[in-house]
Description:
Layout: H1 4-39, H2 43-57, H3 61-74, H4 80-90
Helix pairs in contact: 1-2, 1-3, 2-3, 2-4
Amino acid sequence: MPSRDEQLARLEEEVAQLRQAVASHAVIDQAIGVLICLHQLSPADGFTVLRVASQLANTKLHTVAEAVLDWAHTRQPLPAPLKEALNEALRAYPGAGTPES
């Protein structure tokens, strides 16, 4: 049986992981919201676009979501690999258009 200190350390690690997951999920949900608003996508399609762009750019989903949010807040151009990946992912949705920057 693990000692009390070992149990506490394990629980603290689990809590830290859960906090990170909640924060990451919020960023992804916000990025989906940006795609929904700008490209008239459903929530499911917005998530699919992010996921596909993540795979195409070989970049973590959370990183793609952060880039979309940064673009939405600053209107600074997306990094070229992410812009290309998002454009390609959006092509599957007629009428969705492509990111402006």
